[in-house]
Every structure is written in C-alpha cells, then in structure tokens.
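Ticket #4471: structure export looks truncated?
Reporter: QA, pipeline team
Priority: medium

Steps to reproduce: submit the single chain below to the structure queue and open the exported record.
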Amino acid sequence: MWKAPYQRAHAGLGYVPQGREIIPQLTVEENLMLGMEALPGGLGRQRGIDPFVYDLFPILRDFLPRKGGDLSGGQQQQLAIARALLGKPKLLLLDEPTEGIQPNIVLDIESAVRQIISQAGISVLLVEQHLHFVRQADRYYAMQRGGIVASGPTQELSQAVVDQFLSV
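Actual output as written to the record:
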C-alpha cells in the first residue's frame, strides 16, 4: 500500500536517495532541522540536533551556517544521512551512498554506517555497487530486472555469484 513520504517517516523509515536531495538554498543547520520534522509533536525543535550526528560527521558542526549547495558532494551525502537520522528512524534506506564520492569520504561514510548499526541500533538497507562496502553487510541480495536472483549471508557471497550478477 502506497504511503505519503511523511507517513513513511512517521512510521520509522529514513531515506537517503541516490543524488542526496539536500536543499541547496538552505543552510546545513536548516537542512538538519528538516530531518526532525518526522518526530511527533515538534520534539526535534525542543531537543535540538542530536550530537550523535556530529560524532558521525564532525565537519557538519563547522558548516552549520553554510548553504547546503556550497558543500562538496561527499559533505552533502554526510548531510543527507545526518538529516535522515534526525527523524529517529527504525530503518534507514541508503540508495548508493558512495556514488560519485571521493575515496576518503567513502571510508567515512562506511564507518558511519557501521556506527549507526552498532551504536544507534538502526537497521540499514543499503543499495550499493561497491563490493567492498557490500561485504560488510550481514546479508546480500543481488537483483536483476527488479527481481532477486541471489541472496544469502554476506560471508557466503561466492566469487561465482559476484562474477555472474555483480561484475561488469
């Protein structure tokens, strides 16, 4: 059943789309505040920005007054993930979070995802093409034309499956 984005957010779903979709004209702080709109009864405005997002992405604290559109692609991705986390989701959907991101920021994002799972207890559904990032997951699902063609525990992801479904 289809639900409006605000209904999905209220149900505990956080979403970071491919391409980030931050609002470039708003400051970093304003973008972060938008993430708290999913909280019931304006609780976000009362509590302020959760320091956990600054633990994950320290650069955001320094950039609060900057326009989101002035950030690099990697910084925008960090902002988009932090914004989704501020809605206190139970499940965080990340659609290709490393696409077009420089390698050192990719490592920061990978580390942040591990911390989100281990420290915040949030489940993460990751759509990703970088195999080294995928191998850190508990389970994998390979899709082809909208259908699942292979799945299992990630430690059992064989080279044959990689060659058949994940290689170009």
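Status: closed, not a bug. The export was complete when the record was re-opened. Leaving a note from the reviewer for reference: Residues 138-168 form one domain.
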